[in-house]
Fold:
Amino acid sequence: MIEPFWRRRVRHVLLLLLVGLVLFMWLSWQTAQLARASFTSGYLLLFMILVLAAYRWRKRWPPLQRLGSSATWLQIHIYVGLAAFALFWFHVGFRWPLGALEQMLATVFLLICGSGFYGLYVTRTVPRKLTAIGGEVIFEQIPVHRRQLVQRAEALALDPKNQSDILLSFIEQRLLPFLTRGRSMSYLAFPNGKTRRALLSEVENLKRYLTPEHQACTPPLQRLIQDKDDLDFHQALQGRLKGWLFIHVCLTGILLALAILHTLLVHVFQGSL
Structure:
């Protein structure tokens, strides 16, 4: 019998809270004993960062792939990330650091946390939105699909059945620019169907000035508009996923370098090296 999703989620959250409570009590006890709790929390935080970075390495290092499925690694990534976020505040004493390196390290860490929460949101919502419009589009193949749409539009313009000044004018002045040009930054940030609806409405209005024979040529035009708008929607949402991942991975590399440098400097000034 498959365990319900919500029950697994509740068990994992309770386990995370239990581990967090034990860790907090242990570090608090170290602080009360005048031990270097900051060293303990710092090394634990560095270990967590390495575990979080290992999720990316798993895809490139086969031995890690034998240690569990991608879904399991993702769950570990999420819960370890939440634990690291809480441990970070304990490590800095629940205040903003003072040193320049520490402030830089804290800023990068919080940026990664923010991008992680954003990534959790987009990876849960974007696939559903893309599935809703139907079709499967590979991001790298979008330029190829666009060229195919332009070829279809040019073929319509050359078709003897479509030799109407009104149709040719619409294809040349409205359809081809829409098919060949990219969308604005505002659209890529907040994709919408405003342009699609406007062009489809123009095609409907054209029918009043066309003969019945030429009216039969308008559905392919509408299909081209819809296909191009779907491609743009894929580009906007898939680009959001790829852009988020690129930033998240780059910030992780910077964080690892700063964390290692911070650890070395702490030991140097403490006389441990």
Q: What stands out?
A: Residues 139-239 form one domain. The mean pLDDT is 85. Residues 218-270 form the longest helix (53 residues). The radius of gyration is 28 Å.
